[in-house]
Amino acid sequence: MKTTALMGTVAAIALTGGAAFAAEGDTLAQVKQRGELICGVHTGLAGFAAPDANGNWSGFDVAFCKALAAAVLGDATKVRYVPTTGQTRFTALSSGEVDVLARNSTWTFSRDTDLKLDFVGVNYYDGQGFMVRRDLGVTSAKELDGATICIQTGTTTELNLADYFRANNMNYQPVNIDTSAEGEQQYIAGACDAYTTDASGLASLRAAFADPENHVILPEIISKEPLGPAVRHGDSNWADIARWTLYALIAAEEYGVTSANIDELAANSGNPDVQRLLGSTDNLGAMIGLDAEWAKRAIKASGNYGEIFASTIGEQTPIGLARGLNAQWTQGGLQYAMPFR
Fold this sequence. Notes:
Elements: H1 7-24, H2 27-34, E1 37-42, E2 50-51, E3 57-58, H3 60-73, E4 79-84, H4 89-94, E5 100-101, H5 109-113, E6 117-119, E7 124-126, E8 128-133, E9 147-152, H6 157-167, E10 172-177, H7 180-188, E11 194-198, H8 199-208, E12 215-217, E13 225-227, E14 230-232, H9 236-255, H10 262-268, H11 272-277, H12 294-302, H13 305-312
Parallel strand pairs: 1-4, 1-5, 9-10, 9-11
Antiparallel strand pairs: 2-3, 6-14, 7-13, 8-11, 8-12
Helix pairs in contact: 3-9, 3-12, 9-12
């Protein structure tokens, strides 16, 4: 998902409170002193980030938070999850309310520059789509001329939607919502003909419906939405830690390192790449203020990237997402970890 309306406000915060926060001390030291990672997540999106009845969070984005906590604190459970909406997420990060944002947020020029954020990588390549009720009889987004469309405010989804309809000489009536939960309620109640957001978000919402088979995700993808974790400008070491934690998960899948064989490979692998990744040789962790086994702990927290994908949002889950662009580069996808050297 994506935000534009807050550009000026959040940029001001980033240049005052957020920038001052980063300048006061390094985030790694603050997290270690606190003994807890504060992770900004979604308010609740099945498969990506959602709490159970006991308040325990799980999901694709949550797994990154756990990996980062394991790398930095040695314990994947040392995370405080802060739910954020499309309108509050960047303010929470810029102001220092959270240490990292792991909440299906799109990496864009203005967010990287004007909002003073550092996106540490892409953990999910996505695109904006549309969902309609099957009984509407619509098979293409180009049949939505004159439709009412539920759309989350404070997101660039609004701009993408306007661009698409303008380019196709169509009109629509927006139904503004603040959260996914509100959007689901409005859509189910018939307040809008279609719901638009990232295609992965549509799959998540549909999976939670009582009758998912009665709802269709249309074939058109109208934008590029590279989603990934973000940190504040001004603390390059913390950005390095978050970035290379994500790369550790991706590299582990490429090298065949799993939660089941990681200890065996750490002790006996003859692959130099695996040895460096798991800290068996070369203490890469010392370069970022961590110990030699930081990446090993990150991987053990929830598994490698492929294991996380499969267990949270993959084809065998209710979300049912295929790897597609999120397959490893060796399998025709875009996921590619920089070398651990």
